Amino acid sequence: MGMPPGASGRDQVLASVRRALGRKGEAPEPEAVTARLARPQQNTIPMRAQLQQPELTELFLSMAADAQATVVRLPSRERVPAAVADFCREHGLSAQAVIAPASPLADLDWSTGGVAVETRAVRSGDPVALATAAAGIAETGTLALLSGPENPVTGNFLPDNHLVVLEERDLLGTPEDLWAMLRERGLPLPRTVNWITGPSRSGDIEMTMLMGAHGPIRLHILFVDAGSGA
Amino acid sequence: MTLATQSRNFPEQVRVARADGNLQQALGRLKFGLTLMRGAAVDRLPEFERLRDEAAAIRDHTLTHLDHYLLRFEQAVTERGGHVHFAVDAESANAIILEICREAGARKVTKGKSMVTEEIELNEHLAAHGIECLETDLGEYIVQLRRERPSHIVAPAIHVLKSQVADAFAEHHGEAPPGGRDEAASLMAEARAVIRRHFLEADVGITGANFAIAETGTTVIVTNEGNGDLTQSLPKVHIAVTGIEKVVPTLEDASTLIRLLSRSATGQEAAVYNTFSTGPRRAEDPDGPEAFHVVLVDNGRSSMLGSEFQEMLRCIRCGACLNHCPVYGQVGGQAYGSVYPGPMGAVLTPSLAGIDAAGHLPNASTFCGACEAVCPVRIPLPKMMRHWREREFESGLAPRTQRLGLGIWRFAARRPRLYRTLAAAGARLLRIAGGRRGYLRRLPLGRGWTAWRDLPAPAGETFHAAWRRRRHER
Question: Which of B189, B259, B298, B447 has the smallest CB count inside 10 Å?
């Protein structure tokens, strides 16, 4: 098809695309493409998520609950260990949890809550692991977690119960707000950006939706919220 | 090699599907599950129609500049330490993936759900070269154990009953676990335990990509189970396989499409896991893959660009057109003989496999238009099926009786007086035959219709006659 013998797959695919688009060989990048990538624009943003506090928190909490996540509101980070203890008790789990060694959560005072904390990588079958969300997305009740030493990505999927701390000041309206925040921090993106909305599930057996397909069976959000008054 | 199909046997496969009680029972669930949930999700988002317009525009823009966006995507992936491979067809895609697996010394590969790897029959290719390739999406896993192809692009095992899942597990896993195999929950727990071991043992993880973002060199997967994440995060190599048309310009554009995807597919506000992967793990990362490869597959897609089928490349594989299609709802996915069934498959399969292999599929439509009405990227599916019907006829592939019938009709239609006379006589005759019931149970030459349903008899007057009378009355 007009390609020299031995042309690479890359050259062949690009040549076919160009031919189909009616181009004569390689063309300089059009301004429409350059501009779109240089200055990314938002498309329509649902009104639902264009809110101020306290409505933003209310939306996040109700959307997360609709997605079968459970949420507890805490007045400060210092209350996290006690909340983890409560969670373990409520679900009949022994009071132990895994935290990544580099996670700031490891610096909390775990001596009082009665939870035995191990600072190491999460392993398959660990009952409880903790993580920190970089942001919450109120539109859909979603947590955004960024991979890195503080939140190793496999820790989001290997434990049976995933407990995630989210600070109210990190609550955003939409995914677009998250991208704006990350751009401000400076790209490139971390290896993995996870949006997590509720616990793992599958409807693949007779369309019955069941929790805990491959990832965590429960997602419990520890929402640190000075306004909670608790 | 392009897309392999068994679509030539469509009429026979339809008869089998209609007579399959298990399948009919399974398909009955479709109507009251996914379609209702989609409707409710759309009602909750007042901006849905505007988002559909924007989504179609994003796709059209990207396709118009696809060569440039592919280059930008490649550049961004490479800058972040990943590798992009372009595959002309299924054969070269399989060869590229096999080579990466061999270089990694892989013996076991886990897979997230990916329609493109179904299209290129990757599992069979790797198995033939001694590499075990294991599906990990629960539905795909069930289908793989049953040695079948998926019957739905989102819910691959929608045709399988719970008892059949239990049978497949008994055959492959041996003795039942303590929970037994009667409940869906215990079956899922059993699969979770078995597949978890495979995740931990795999040398390479292969996923699809719902989107490939040119701005950042990021691939995106949208899932509910978390299997795709375990697939791509635990092994030392992650390969994302997707079609060249999956490129989108920016993170914002991907976000708009994701809003439509989960609502259209399952009626969820958001899928449980939307995962954005950029390059391999970083120096400071304690986990994640050491190598990141993206395989961009053409396999016939570029030939759709600039043709009357270009809009089909907007497709985001949500499955809404399958869920709302009365034909799919009657026969299920496997009758289509293609991994792409339903309305989207009726357009895409002939595009990728050729009209001679898949000519029946564009005919498997009542043209009710439900597919186009729900398509999140407004693909004019009925119009495209009509294009395929034309091409089928023009290339002489239509059956002889159909060509003869159309020939007779054309002869008459070009002679208005003859046409009116014949039509008036026919309409009167049919009305008499319909009698007081007003419908016909049997019709000569019309068994294709009357074997399954009655034919409503015409009112006795032709449209032409009625039109003239009404104009006269006014």
Answer: B447
